[in-house]
Amino acid sequence: MVNKILCATSFGTSAKIVEVEATFTRGLPNFNITGLAHHSIQESKQRVQSALVNNHFILPARKINVNLSPSDLPKNGGHFDLPIALALQKNTDNAEDWFAFGELGLDGSVKYLDSIYPLLLDVALLYPDAKVIVPQDAKDLLCMIPNLRFYFVQTLTQAIEICNTPDLLPESQEGTLGFEKIEILGESYFYQSHFELDFKDVYHQPIAKRAALIAASGFHNFIMEGSPGCGKSMIAKRLIYILPPSSLQEMIENVKHQALNKQSTAYTPLRPFRNPHQSASKSSILGSATQYEVKPGEVALAHNGILFFDELPHFKRDILESLREPLENNKLSISRVHSKIEYDTSFMFVGAQNPCPCGNLLSKTKECRCQDREIAAYRSRLSEPFWDRIDMFVQMSEEKPNTSSLPSCMDSQSMQEQVFAAFKYQKNRGQKIFNGKLDEKGIEEFCVLDTPSQTLLEQAIERFGLSYRAKNKIKKVARTIADLAQEECITKSHILEALSYRRI
Question: To bridge 351 with a disulfide, which of 92, 223, 225, 501 should be the other Cys (CB 3.0-4.6 Å)?
Answer without folding.
Answer: 223
